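User: For a benchmark we're assembling, each entry needs the component sequences followed by a predicted structure for the full assembly. Here are entry 17's components. Please fill in the structure.
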Amino acid sequence: MHTRISSHSQEVIIGPDQPVVIIGERINPTGRRKLAAALEAGDMALLKEDARRQVEAGARILDVNVGISGADEAALMRQALAAVREVTDVPLCIDSADPKVLAAGLEVYEGKALVNSVNGEEAKLKEVLPVVAQYGAAVVALTMDDRGIPNDVDTRLAIADKILNEAARLGIATEDVIIDPLAMSVAADDQAGLTALTALARIRDRLGVNQTIGASNISYGLPERRAVNCVFLAMAVMNGLTCPITDPTIWEIRRTLLLADLFLGRDEFAMNYISAYREQFPEDD
Amino acid sequence: MADLEAIKEAVSKGRRKDIVPLVEAALAEGVDPHVIINDYMIEAMKEVGARFEAKKIFVPEMMIAARTMQEGLEVIKPHIEGSGSSGKKLGTVVIGTVFGDLHDIGKNLVVLMLQSSGFEVHNIGENVPPETFVEKARELGADVVGMSSLLTTGDPHVKATVEAIKQSDIADKVKVICGGAAVTEKFALETCGADGYAPDAAGAVKVTKELLGLA
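Assistant: Structure for entry 17:
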């Protein structure tokens, strides 16, 4: 199944027969005080720098989240989308907890955007999916609902199924829903990795949709978080992860995903890996 | 002779297999259950908290220590209830994640650490509206209300929750503590008017004790 996301001039195809598509996560003020302060002051320089660096590091789509408290988030979203456009043409993922902000972003977006996110909560389904349908966008769907995040795979699969049905009812194609089966901290629950990996595989086998995952939760509370994230990402790609939301400016992460592609036969003559290596370690001649 | 130091070590090292026989042996010899709890188990958890704070140990090690203590407590419980004297509680804490936020890992860690430190803890879940914090705190006779917020967009809810408590009839009875990745000390204390701020689970125990005059 192919999900197509586009800007005015570029199209990205996400699918199990394609190289992994990295959705760059850095444009998000959560836990980034500097970026939050810059956005609050209406200063887009850091955001542009993040956009440029992530695309250089192989991000094919950029997530844009400007959720800071006390700001007019809709206006800020439009400003941020325009600022990103000044430095890159890659397709964008409009990310907000507020459906009105999603709509404000989609209204000015040229192309077919990705929306982050909907989940199985009744209010979210009712408020987010119609906006996605109205603008012909694609959407990330988290497998949680009004009861919270389920600990078991069956319930996550059932929620994914429910969201797909609701999307179809509104005219959103199945391939335009990207499921996030949710990775939780293995430090808090040592079965959380297995649950996420099994959920990925079952959703791929049963529903056939593309999947993303925020991988950094998995390592919370453990030593060597970066290494933990990388091993998980590699295993997740094997199980059906096709478009992780992550930070490609971290070389270990980029390398992990490139090698996952190579091992799964999606990198002819290993050229993607080798050219990324050359970019990362230029010969000083 | 009962090896009480071994109980302390079993808890602090998280040796779940050892704890039950050690506690059973101590009880069989007539050691006061309260001594086991207060002088050895809670002491062990204090050390665990300090090591976690100093970044010497990781989250799973803290969790398994707390779990080990809980298993030891299960063995002790019937002996305390039978003797008619209830275990002394340091205080009652009501804790939840603020409205609009479903994150529970950090908050649940705080619950575990507070319980292991001798507090009665009521976990009121995630996505909790301000008025529910107030109602539950009143109903349960809380000494402390703790709230967690991970999302930056949760700031207004943290503020609204602190204000709801401070403007309620229980304002004089409870202390309010804020924590979570989205909350800074300055925001919690100055912007919201909370009584305390905790950067992590060990810090939450510390500030709870300080606010109740137990430190």
